[in-house]
Structure formats: C-alpha cells, structure tokens
Write a structure and sequence with these properties.
globular, five-stranded parallel beta sheet, 12 helices, 3 domains, FAD/NAD(P)-binding domain, Polyamine Oxidase, Chain A, domain 2, 446 residues, binds flavin-adenine dinucleotide, 33% helix, seven-stranded mixed beta sheet, single chain
Length: 446
C-alpha cells in the first residue's frame, strides 16, 4: 500500500520503519525541518540538550525497550544509569517517591504524613470509593499529611489548575500503590525503593534523546518529507488524498487540535470535542554551568515549592552522558509548565528560573555560562473532568472512520515514547491484517 503518516515524531517514524520493512511505500510528512517532535535535542557549542525536558529510555515492556536500545546502537551506544531522584523538601533531599522517603522529613512531618496515610488506608479498606477528581483522590490515596507536604504543592505547580477540577482516572495506572509495609519501614528510617520499573534507565551517549529517532529513520527505508505542513486530508471512493497526493491509507500522529482543520470530513460535534482538547505547555530551560567539582550523582530533582522558582523538575542532564557537556562543565534542564502565558525568550524571567535553582541548592548562579530555553506547546494533557468522555467520542469516530490516529497527542494518551512504540507495533499489526484481508475493520487498541 501507499501510506501517508502525518507527523515525524517517534510514533510516526517507528510505524513508518515497521511498515516499510513489510514492503509498503511509506511517506512521513513532517512540518518541522527535521523529525523528532518532542524527542528532539539541540546543541549549543559543545553542550547538548533535550528540547522537551529530560527524557530517558526505560520501559516495563522488554520487547519495546530492546527496540529502543537497538535504535541507539544498543548498550554500546547508550549509558546505563541507576536512577537517583530526590525531592527538594525545604532544606532536605528526600528520596522519591515521597512515600518511600517519608523518614527523611522532620519528625513532625513524618508523623503527620503517617497519621494521614493510615487514616486514608483504613477508609479505603472500609470501602471509601475512589473519588473522580484528582484533588480528592490525593487525600483518599495518600492522606492529609502527604497531600500538604508534597502532593498538592507539586501538582498545583505542574498542572496550573485547582486539582479538584482535574479528573483522577489518569493517575490510576501511573502511580502504583506502595505496600504499607514499605511506607512503615521508610517512616522508621529503613529506605525502600518504590517504582522499581524505573530504577535503571538508558540514554544515548551522543546526540541527546533525539538519537533514538535518528536511529529509527536511518535504514528505515521510508520517505521522510520535512518542512511539509499537512493542510488538507480528504477521503475519496478509492482512497485518500493528503495535500492533493493520493494514498491508500492515512495514519495521523500530529496533535489532534493542530491537524483537525486539515481533515475535511470530521463531523462538527467531533470538531468541537477536538478543539476543547487543551494541552499544558512547557518551557524547558537549558543551562550550562562551569564546574569546579563533578555534579552530585543525581538524575533529577522535584521542586514543589514556589520559593524554589517556577521549575517543577530539574534534570542533571550531563549525568546522563558525559558528552552532553564539554570537559569541566555540566548542564541542567529546568522544566516549567504553563498555559500559554510564558515566553521562552524572556531573559528576565529566565533569570528567575536560575535564581530559584540557586536558592534550592541545585546550582550556583555564578557558575552559569549558557542560558537558553525552548517552548513546547504540546507537553502534557489537560485532564479536566470532561476529558475522558470527550476523547472517547473523538477516538470512536477516528477508529471507525478508515483513518488511523495514535501518538501522545495524536490520540491524547499520556504516553512516554516506549508506549508510543508499543502503539506503533499495534497499529502495524492492524495494517498487516488490513493489507492481508482488504477489510477496513475499525481500529481496536487495548
Ligand atoms: C516533559 C516531558 C518529559 C518526557 N519524558 C519522557 C521520558 O523520560 N521518556 C520517554 O520515553 N518519553 C518521555 N516523554 C514523552 C515523549 O516525549 C512522547 O511520548 C513522544 O515524544 C511523543 O511522540 P509522538 O510522535 O507521539 O508526538 P510528537 O513528538 O508530538 O510528534 C508529532 C509531530 O507532528 C508534527 N506536526 C505538527 N503539526 C503538523 C502538521 N500540520 N503537518 C505535519 N507535521 C506536523 C510535529 O512537528 C511533530 O514532529 C516526555 C514528554 C514530556 C513533555
């Protein structure tokens, strides 16, 4: 088949590679000057940075993890790191997840957290139902102390909305419940791990996270058309047209609100739903520093409090690969979410980011030799209370339409790149079946 894939992020490029290996004629149409999307990286002199905040390669899915490492030259092309993350809790460095680090708080805070945790635990065991909004979910799941000391300030900083106006459904699969024994052990000072699936991660030695996309394109045997904005997608009796060119099949991975105007046959009600799918945006601040001693052995730090500046997470990015910074230097990424009201080129504001990191003890401002920033309009999904119903209607229409759509914002799934690759494998299977049988059955994704 002649297949058009809209968008050249990891979703589009991974699927293109799989389909081309089956002998299909595949074209990826990408608006930007090169592929990569949210996985892109950039260089300033001898510094390398990821554009959309700190990215790591990790997965619970061994087949996908192997696929991703292969694209980066395997173990030889990557650095393997044991995750060391902390929460900067006032003047303390508390291990993450916060529940597992509770013994590192002040004694009073530990007692408050444990009291609330046990009360919440008992209420759940007594049948207290899972709340539908995220604010109440935090209390239900973690209790009042954990909520006040970390979960609420941190989540308000990242989501920029009243947490009771957010849905809770999206956290269910993402935040595994730590065994109560682990929390009790942590409270008496015995460290426990938590989130073991992420305890080790990989990163490309050279080229930043984008190296994974470059390795997907290299030898991928598909056509990649960059600097091409998809403006018109039409359906005809015998196939489809994209920007006037005929194709047998169209697969979208572009953020739905960005591509909606191009599709000619979306019903008005579904268009309304798509337009209401708002993203949370992210300014990623890229900071190079001159070092007189190596950076501490840390991966990233969560910054929940306003006095630490606007950053919600700071990545010790040169710890991921020594090639990310020149000799004698190190580099950081500082992530700041927003709702369209920040400008990456506002130097005065960038300085407030550095000042906050200085106050938090992450870096010293006189060490900074490079300060740049990059805006990402589509970074996180705004999980308001209507989101689940709205996206269900949109996916239902697309899945029955003959077009296929997937990707972090192509399907509005809160997915990391490994899950995008898994989705590409599932869409690949669907297209194999379609090519074999000719039956345009609706797409069904687990
Ligand atoms: C802060 C942050 C941290 C993350 N950390 C990790 C991590 O540690 N590990 C991990 O695996 N994942 C991580 N992710 C997730 C990861 O970045 C995404 O899952 C993945 O990059 C999504 O890829 P995609 O191809 O679905 O979408 P995108 O990368 O958004 O690709 C969509 C593409 O469509 C193009 N496009 C837009 N409009 C048009 C048009 N009209 N015509 C043609 N092309 C168009 C865009 O230029 C873009 O290239 C993180 C994401 C964020 C925001």
């Amino acid at each position: 088949m002649k297949i058009a894939i809209l968008g050249g992020g990891i979703s589009g490029c991974a699927l293109a590679r799989m389909l081309a290996a089956d002998g299909h004629q595949v074209t990826v149409l990408e608006r930007s000057e090169r592929p990569g999307g949210l996985c892109k990286s950039r260089r300033y002199d001898d510094f390398t940075f990821d554009e959309a905040g700190g990215h790591i390669i990790f997965s619970k899915d061994q087949e996908v993890l192997d696929w991703q490492l292969d694209r980066c030259g395997g173990e030889a092309g990557t650095q393997r790191t044991e995750r060391k993350t902390r929460i900067r809790w006032h003047d303390r460095w508390v291990p993450y997840p916060f529940e597992n680090g509770v013994g590192h708080l002040t004694k009073e805070a530990t007692v408050e957290c444990m009291k609330g945790y046990i009360e919440a635990y008992v209420s759940r065991r007594m049948g207290e139902p899972c709340p539908e909004n995220f604010g109440d979910w935090i209390q239900w799941r973690m209790g009042d102390g954990f909520a006040r000391h970390f979960m609420v300030p941190y989540n308000e900083k990242i989501w920029k909305r009243d947490l009771t106006t957010m849905a809770s459904a999206w956290v269910a699969g993402r935040v595994p419940e730590a065994p109560i024994e682990d929390i009790l052990r942590s409270a008496i000072g015995v460290d426990t791990e938590g989130y073991t699936h992420q305890s080790v991660f990989w990163f490309p030695l050279r080229g930043g996270f984008e190296a994974m996309v470059a390795g997907t394109v290299d030898g991928g045997a598909f056509d990649l058309s960059c600097n091409v904005e998809v403006q018109r997608v039409e359906r005809h009796a015998d196939g489809f047209k994209v920007n006037g060119e005929p194709f047998d099949l169209v697969v979208n991975t572009v953020p739905l609100p960005q591509i909606e105007p191009a599709f000619q046959d979306i019903p008005d009600a579904i268009r309304g739903d798509i337009r209401a799918l708002r993203p949370i945006s992210l300014v990623n601040v890229m900071i190079g520093v001159k070092l007189d001693e190596p950076l501490p052995d840390l991966s990233w730090i969560y910054l929940p409090f306003p006095d630490q500046g606007p950053t919600n997470r700071a990545t010790y990015y040169s710890n991921y690969s020594k090639f990310n910074a020149p000799e004698g230097h190190g580099c950081f990424l500082a992530e700041v979410t927003h709702r369209g009201d920040l400008r990456a080129d506002d130097r005065e504001w960038l300085q407030t980011v550095v000042d906050g990191l200085d106050r938090a003890g992450i870096l010293r401002k006189e060490q900074v030799v490079l300060l740049e920033a990059c805006n990402n309009e589509y970074a996180y999904i705004d999980q308001d209370l209507e989101f689940a119903a709205r996206i269900a209607r949109v996916r239902k229409w697309f899945d029955g339409s003959g077009y296929l759509t997937f990707g972090r914002f192509g399907r509005y799934e809160y997915h990391n790149s490994d899950q995008c690759v898994r989705r590409a494998m599932q869409v690949h299977q669907h297209i194999r079946e379609l090519a074999r049988s000719g039956d345009r059955a609706p797409l069904v994704l687990p």
